Amino acid sequence: MAHIISTINLKGGVGKTTITAALAEIIAGDYGKRVLIIDLDPQTNLTVYMIGVVRWRELNESGRTLATLFRDAVDPRPAGSLFDVRAALQRDVSPVRSVTQVDLLASSLDLIDLQDRLLSPSGGFFYNPVELLHRQLEKISADYDYILIDCPPNLSMLTLNGVRISDGYIIPTIPDFMSTYGIPQVRSRIQRFATNVGLDIPAFGLVVSKYRANASLHQQMADYLARSGRDAGLHVFESRIPESADIAAAAEFNDWGTLRQRYGNKGQYDALAALTAEFMNVVEGAR
Questions:
Q1: Which of 16, 64, 189, 224 is surrounded by the most beta carbons within 10 Å?
Q2: What is the DSSP string of the chain?
């Protein structure tokens, strides 16, 4: 069975997409695992990160993004669903030449409108809106060792679709007040949702990202998060991902030779690799 993990924070710009992509590529490239990444964020950052704008536009125009799955629910057609999960699946999407076995289900800007409409379907079509992605993933999840889901920076129906199929979730955060204040709300909302659907969906941990080791505020907040996390039963990963121009440049769609070239050779890749090892230990130890 695949390990399925969502990446969530109510605050944007905290490194959520970069961490999701790096985990996927390192798990596949360094550990030889089969990984699927699912981009549920209407901003499409993870999709463009992996396949570039030109390829994303081709998929969007041909209806091979997740927008088609959710549009089928709110605008049902007499002929039935147009979404084919295997046709939508993009294989071996990593632009790092040494990395294979990373597949993608792409996002779309059209999800911006659809995430609101999922709460009020038209046409008398009855469905449980949090089961839409689950029904599709059942068809392909056995093909993967890990499935990583990049969720929007909110707790919309799109995010709940990701949480519904997850074994747990991680919360990347910059160690500052604005990035961390919504963490209790994320945990309590997901706990209520998990209770309602009869599932156990734990927080696997908090990832400190865009960390500036020479900034006293970051040091103090990161240490505080580690202490308060222990008190609140929230694991805080020991690996702190540095703020880095190299990591920011990794978001550019490019032809990368190795993971070190993509993420940085001055300790940045090493931090992400250490996080990945710790992440896999936590996730596999929870089963």
A1: 16
A2: --EEEEE--SSSSSSHHHHHHHHHHHHHHHH---EEEEE--TT-HHHHHHHHHHHHHHHHHTT-SHHHHHHHHHS--TT-----HHHHPBPS--SBTT---EEEE---TTHHHHHHHTTS--TT----GGGHHHHHHTTTGGG-SEEEEE--SS-SHHHHHHHHT-SEEEEEE-SSHHHHTTHHHHHHHHHHHHHHHT----EEEEEE-SB-TT-HHHHHHHHHHHHHHHHHT--B-S--PBP-HHHHHTTS---BSSHHHHH-TTTHHHHHHHHHHHHHHHHHHT-
Q: Rounded to two decimals, what is the model's pTM? A: 0.94
Task: Let me know: does 204 contact 39? Beta carbons within 8 Å.
Answer: no
Ordered by where they begin, the domains of the chain are: 3-285 (3.40.50.300)
Hunting for tokens 């079509």 — which residue is that? 125
How far apart are the C-alpha atoms of 133 and 196, rounded to whole Å? 18
